[in-house]
Amino acid sequence: MTHPYWPFFDLRVCTPRLELRYPDDHDVTEVMSLAARGIHPPDFMPFGVPWTRFDNLERQGMQFHWRARADLTPEHWDLPLVAVVDGVIVGTQSVSAKDFAVARTVGTGSWVGQAHQGQGIGKEMRAAVLHLAFEGLGAQTATSGAFVDNAASIAVSRALGYEDDGFEVHARDGQAARQVRFRLERAEWEARRRHDIVIEGLERCLGALGLGGS
After folding, report:
1. What is the mean pLDDT for each group of 10 consecutive residues in the chain (214 residues)?
2. SS3 61
3. What is the DSSP string of 18-56?
4. What percent of the chain has pLDDT over 90?
5. Residue 20 burial class via C-beta count within 10 angstroms: exposed 0-12, middle 13-18, buried 19 and up
6. How far is CA 68 from the centre of its chain?
7. In angstroms, rounded to a whole number, what is the distance separating the alpha carbons of residues 178 and 154?
8. pLDDT, tens digit (0-9, with 9 covering 90-100), for 25-55
9. DSSP letters for 116-181
10. DSSP letter at 65?
11. Is 109 helix (H, G, I), strand (E, B) or coil?
12. pLDDT (tens digit per residue) in 146-176
């Protein structure tokens, strides 16, 4: 059913293996329940902001998704999509941008629930969101980043053709931690692009993202 006021609820990116979709409140409830069951071992923190250790994780997660909706403007937007495999939410894959209509650059971030890791889902999610960015939105560049000890995320970026783009140092758990930056240009994505990914419901979202339309 087409949503009359918030077209993002109808946005889908489908591969033969999974679906990315913009979550309604039911989906957000499910994905925060998944996060509470575990994303990473307790002695490892893959995120710059240690949100998986927050008190009231589920409630704060709901607020994060509500803020992403409320704060979305053509100049600055964040689309936190949920990944669904065989009807089950297995993680999230976000794509965000500032001044996208001019800069044509997006950033991405993701996580997969521990029970679903090691099955290639992270790579499939990233391939899907890159298709949305490059094919659907006309991006020229996609960026990502990972701490140097996050081997799984680094492997996904390199497998999909990203190039190293320097590093940054962040405070993580009270200590300095190096984060590798990655960059994927449109030409490299075109050389590797897949033709089995389908985007649905995007046209009505374009205006809100600064790309014309209603």
Report:
1. 91 98 98 96 89 92 97 98 98 98 97 96 98 98 96 96 96 92 98 97 97 72
2. helix
3. -EEE---HHHHHHHHHHHHT-SS-TT---SSS-GGG-TT
4. 90
5. buried
6. 13
7. 13
8. 999 999 999 999 999 999 898 988 888 999 9
9. GTTSSHHHHHHHHHHHIIIIIT--SEEEEEEETT-HHHHHHHHHTT-EEEEEEEEEETTEEEEEEE
10. H
11. strand
12. 999 999 999 999 999 999 999 999 998 889 9
CB 172 within 8 A of CB 48: yes
Give all strands of the β-sheet with 163-172 in edge-to-edge order.
Answer: 163-172, 175-185, 141-147, 105-112, 88-98, 76-85, 19-21, 12-14, 198-200
Question: Could you tell me which residues come within 8 angstroms of residue 5 by beta carbon, excluding any fewer than 6 positions away?
Answer: none
Token pair 């949100």: residue: 51
CB atoms within 10 A of CB 4: 7
C-alpha closest to that of 159 among 144, 138, 179: 144
Across-strand partners of 213? Answer: none
Q: What distance lies between CA 102 and its chain's CA centroid?
A: 21
Per-residue CA distances from 116 to 113, 163, 203 (Å): 6, 27, 32
- Residue written as token pair 């069951």: 37
Structure pTM? 0.96
| Tokens 């893959």, located at residue | 46
Torsion angles phi and psi, residue 38, rounded to 5: 125, 135
